[in-house]
TrEMBL record:
Keywords: Membrane, Transmembrane, Transmembrane helix. It comes from the Bacteria. The chain crosses the membrane at residues 12-36, 57-80, 100-121. This is Uncharacterized protein.
Length: 124
């Protein structure tokens, strides 16, 4: 039960970080999709503006990648403990499953954000 207490205590802090990461992604995702398209630009000014936007959003998305990876790193020791104490024949513990789900979501989010950052950077 000590592990469950650690998970609960950690989630009291990490849940706020997860909410911030989700809100950040939700805020920038529509613009990232627009910037990854190939909008028609009619002059050099519009092309320069598009390049600056892509650069700015590439940096913002890279920051999100680092943030999600850092939060995942905070949860990693607990996730390792959950796997070490896993008893396939034992009872299902939702708190531990939730930790593993959050860890997986953070890792997938970090990878997706990283890929988007690289795509934006290359399109500049």
């Amino acid at each position: 039960m000590a592990l469950d207490k650690q998970i609960t205590d950690t989630f009291s802090v990490v849940s706020l970080l997860l909410a911030v990461a989700a809100a950040y992604l939700a805020a920038i995702w529509p613009m990232i999709n627009d910037l990854l398209g190939d909008p028609r630009v009619s002059d050099n000014y519009e092309a320069a503006t598009l390049r600056r936007k892509r650069t700015s959003y590439a940096v913002a998305t890279a920051v999100l990648t680092i943030f999600e990876a850092a939060v995942a790193a905070i949860l990693l020791p607990l996730a390792v403990q959950v796997f070490e104490e896993w008893d396939g024949a034992g009872q299902f513990i939702p708190l531990r499953a939730g930790l593993l789900l959050a860890q997986g979501a953070l890792l997938v989010g970090a990878v997706v954000a990283g890929v988007m950052a690289v795509k934006l950077w290359r399109k500049r």
